[in-house]
Write a structure and sequence with these properties.
Radius of gyration: 18 Å
Helix content: 25-40%
Oligomer: single chain
CATH class: Alpha Beta
Number of helices: 10
Number of domains: 1
Distance between the termini: 48 Å
Shape: globular
CATH architecture: 3-Layer(aba) Sandwich
Structural class: alpha+beta
Strand order of the largest sheet: 2-1-10-9-8-7
Length: about 290
């Protein structure tokens, strides 16, 4: 009976999200001058779409993939204090590939909770892969879990082929689907807490008894998160050559929360953070509309 109630609540919640996002867009905020190729801006409370640009176009999403990875881990975990051993082989491979890592040492034992932060803040591919193995025993089985969740949420233009965000042919989504995913995931208190955290020191580990500093890529960019009329409260960045600069974020304006997904902005991690700069500009234009 409990499972039936949970399933009905999930179904009603997802149906509400889909109705909100597929409703009419007022295009209240101008998106002129943005290099981001796919954009959607919504009111977090109502789900109303305030602006969009090619939001239903299939795109590469880089590390925004980890939004689904995090959600599936959270929904599948009973004890977040369980520890996972980080594979030295995996860390060496990821280093050779130039992938972002969390900062934990090889062969260290790290809690699931800290690995979630390590995946979402510094965008650690090592943490994402370790969590996938913890939950499902293999990355392939965990990817099946991700795709089942995408189907459950009605993400009809989304498919995952890995847990990290590699530019694989089978790993894609749309700005609209990502917004549906993000809005649903933020119903989880733990996901919301992680998403809105800028810095965290992990619990002590065997090889790092003082803990590991986990810092969001949002603040590593050096760009302030404030804008005229409000502040960005949190977010998840992503980048690959094919995906460009991507960002899913939340901001507060006059006590209300808004969500924005903007993908395929010009630049790279070595240039100015166009995805964050453009997000701030979009939020600032919204604040001006709200009369701040």
């Amino acid at each position: 009976m409990k499972k039936l109630v949970v399933a009905l609540i999930t179904l009603l919640g997802v149906t509400g999200l889909l109705l909100a996002f597929h409703g009419r867009s007022k295009n209240e905020v101008s998106l002129s001058g943005m290099t981001s190729d796919a954009i959607i801006l919504t009111d977090f409370e109502t789900g109303e779409v305030l602006a969009e640009k090619k939001s239903d176009k299939k795109i590469q999403i880089a590390s925004l993939t980890k939004l689904m990875t995090a959600l599936c881990v959270i929904e599948s975990t009973a004890n977040f204090n369980d520890t996972v051993i980080l594979s030295e082989e995996n860390l060496n491979r990821l280093a050779m590939e130039g992938m972002a890592v969390s900062g934990f040492s090889a062969n260290d034992a790290v809690t699931v909770n800290d690995l979630l932060y390590g995946m979402m803040l510094p965008s650690g591919a090592d943490a994402a892969e370790a969590l996938a193995y913890y939950v499902s025993g293999s990355q392939d089985d965990f990817v099946m879990l991700m795709n089942n969740k995408a189907k459950e949420l009605g993400l009809t233009k989304t498919h995952f082929s890995n847990v990290v965000g590699y530019d694989n042919k089978g790993n894609y989504s749309t700005a609209q689907d990502l917004m549906t995913l993000l809005t649903f995931a933020l119903q989880s208190p733990l996901f919301k807490e992680i998403f809105m955290t800028q810095q965290k020191i992990s619990q002590p580990t065997i090889f790092c008894p003082e803990g590991v500093l986990l810092e969001s890529t949002l603040i590593k960019s050096g760009e302030h998160l404030g804008f005229d009329g409000g502040n960005i409260l949190g977010g998840k960045t992503g980048y690959t050559n094919k995906a460009g600069l991507c960002l899913a974020s939340m901001a507060e304006i006059q006590g209300r929360w808004y969500l924005l997904v903007n993908c395929h902005a010009d630049g790279s991690p070595t240039t100015e953070p166009a995805h964050l700069i453009e997000a701030k500009e979009i939020y600032q234009r919204l604040a001006a509309k709200e009369g701040v």
